[in-house]
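README, section 4: Worked example with a bound small molecule

Sections 1 through 3 covered apo chains. Here we extend the same pipeline to holo records, where the ligand is supplied as SMILES alongside the sequence. The molecule in this example is S-adenosylmethionine. Nothing else about the input changes; the structure line simply encodes the ligand pose together with the chain.
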Amino acid sequence: MSGRSFASTLRDRLPFLRWSVLRFALGGRTFVKTGQVGDGRERVARDYVLALSPTGDPDAVLAALDDFARNHSLLVNIGDEKGLILDAALRKTTPTLLLELGGYCGYSAIRTARLLSADARLVSVEMSPDNAEIARALLAHAGLADRVSVVVGTIGDGGDTVKRLIEEHGFGPGAVDFVFLDHDKSAYLPDLKTILEAGWLHPGSLVVADNVGIPGAPDYRRYMRDAEGTSWRTVEHHTHTEYQSLLKDLVLESEYLG
Ligand SMILES: C[S@@+](CC[C@H](N)C(=O)[O-])C[C@H]1O[C@@H](n2cnc3c(N)ncnc32)[C@H](O)[C@@H]1O
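The generated complex, written as structure tokens:
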């Protein structure tokens, strides 16, 4: 084994040895409050990608973000391993209206939008205005700005964001084909319930939820288990936390049965 491949194996197996991962752990509370780690890495990642990837090439933008997250500073993108699960779920349907909760730097929005038909639209709801700006810059760089709207807000903000989705983005009864949950893990279930109460889903709508293993969304997992075969049909994908191969994670893919 060459020195380089040994180093990359070590880095993948023992992610805690990386300073950027330790720094991330130290910045955990900041991240929960602000949606950023606190050392400016999200802005550095944006500049890195803008400098090193060609315009109009979504796969090159994703590769540059993966490279940054793996070799410079860890980012909480869904990443390349779990990203394949998201891609496969998207390819099972032909969604025209999609909702993402938790946009961060735009990685999963770019991943999603690159697979959509020209008439489809993704709305990415992101709590942090700074992250929303970074995501918009990278979506524009990837040539996908016309397919994605990044909305600053949260589903749990008392109705403001829900109202904007209805009035400005065409959300209504049965209109949403695909939902990607990747935001505050304690908000997965309440936000899904808000979406259900609004009646936005239809039988066949897919909901994909990242990080159900780590950091974990046990109430969401229990809800899907209890509803199995009645209102939902769920596949649990056993996978790994982004950008390493030590920690296991779960991605849930749930079909709404009505
Ligand atoms: C794990 S990151 C999302 C990663 C992104 N989906 C990707 O794969 O590229 C979580 C994001 O959710 C945002 N967030 C946290 N709570 C939120 C909420 N209640 N509604 C919307 N966004 C939220 C954070 O600011 C952060 O940008």
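What to look for in the output: The beta strands are 97-101, 121-126, 148-152, 176-181, 201-209, 232-240, 248-256. The first strand starts at residue 97 and ends at 101.

Section 5 describes how to batch many such records.
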